[in-house]
Amino acid sequence: MNPPEFKEKFKKKYSKLLGDELETFLEWSLKPLQKTIRVNTNKITRKKLITLLEKKGWTVKPLKYYENGLKISNNNTALGNTLEHFLGYYYVQESASMLPPIILNPEKNESILDSCAAPGSKTTQLSMMMENKGIIVANDVSIGRVKILSSNLQRTGCENVIITRNTATSFHVRQNEFDKILVDAPCSATGAIRKKYDIIRQWNENTPIKMCGLQKQILYSCLQALKKGGELVYSTCTLEPEENENVVNHAIKKFGVKLLPAKIKGFKTRPGITNWDEEKYDPTIKKCARIYPQDNNTEGFFIAKMKK
Length: 308
Fold this sequence. Notes:
Radius of gyration: 19 Å
Mean pLDDT: 97
Number of domains: 2
Structural class: alpha/beta
Largest sheet: 9 strands, mixed
Low-confidence stretches: none
Helix content: 25-40%
Order of helices and strands: HHEHEEHEHEHEHEEHHEHEEEEEHE
Distance between the termini: 47 Å
Number of helices: 11
CATH topology of the largest domain: Rossmann fold
Number of strands: 15
């Protein structure tokens, strides 16, 4: 199926972000995503999984920036339709999606909130990184998505996770409770066009303005649930400034949070923008990470790390 045409207003907006790189961005946004999986070291070592997959005739290459991320090619079976997947030895996960948990960097004994957790890619990654120690509260508001989350947690053997079904804007009632929080916020998903071409068709210039209201509410609520000195990662799979730098800037003003660098060795990121539509943002917004599809052959993403 041929992708729909990008809307003129979309191209005009993104030319302000990217200048003469616009055409490169548009071209990469239409390229198929490379196939990537994440090793679940709670169940198997990376070496053993690679051996199993190579016996199938698959070509397996570790990602340069994350040892448990694997790039797959020459697979004659769908990634989600193998015995190894059924047994929870790996999780099918886009490579940029692996970054927010890495940047959050949970410790084994910590209490973690994943406020918008379903379907569970990042929750299961956090659990793996913590070696099933500590505690993770994995929340989602949708009963259907919670069922998928529960299934993925069981498949991957996550034993340190409690599932809740609340609105992500309600966590302010749990004041100063969590050591670290992941807010992978609902968004307009313009970074995920490679996964779903319908995003091009559905894009509307007013959507980011509507979305940022909800995103601010979620972030504000979760910051109140974060312990003083605790760390929070805010991430989206959109590249819209209204949903990214704008939201983070408001959190800096309202809560006085300090931004920390959101970088990963071997992975190209670009600094957050410090002004948009005549509004100037806090200069520390540069510590945020903008991830464009053309830079690492991934989805587009935005990541901010903050300390309360």
